[in-house]
Specification:
Layout: H1 2-18, E1 31-40, E2 43-44, E3 47-48, E4 52-62, E5 67-74, E6 80-81, E7 92-104, H2 106-110, E8 119-133, E9 137-152, E10 157-169, E11 179-192
Antiparallel strand pairs: 1-4, 1-11, 2-3, 4-5, 5-7, 6-7, 7-8, 8-9, 9-10, 10-11
Amino acid sequence: MKSFTLSAIAIAFALFMSGTGSAAQSFFDGTFVRVGAGANMMYDNHKVSAGGIALDLSAGKWVTDQIALRVGYHGITDKAADPNGWLYGSDSFGYHCLHADVLWDLVSTFNNDNRRDSFSVGPMAQCGGIVTHKESRAYAITIGGGAFVEYRFNDRFSVSCELSAMMADEKVWRPTGRLTFFPSATVGVGIWL
């Protein structure tokens, strides 16, 4: 699991470093850092936890006008309670997720002027690894997806909203073999380099 996660992050970083391929553009054109906060929950065995606080940190680059690659961290203050009480009883537990994402800007894709607009909306795909923590640790590979909306005020600042859900195999925590979902909604601020 660790090698898969590290490989996914390494591939995303290599693509990030490849840039746009234009000699006229700076390496940092299209590069951004995002900090977001919001709410999350855990959906498991047809039950939903009460939810908790979600924190997102990410860095990425629009490698074309339509496609962005980013690496991120989701967690730190998340407190999702297992609604079945199987993982840590009914106590809440935290989790941390390192992920690599691909974002597709639909506005730039279907707008023919070949430039990044101030308004972006589109889907995203995610993969990564998750670790829960309390008395003991559990690790799992995650995949997921979602949607984002972003508005750029100028060349340096933007605001965004993201709805996403990651899923992990329950076999990490118990032998039932079902999937656990971690939906999240965050609002963030982006800084463009």
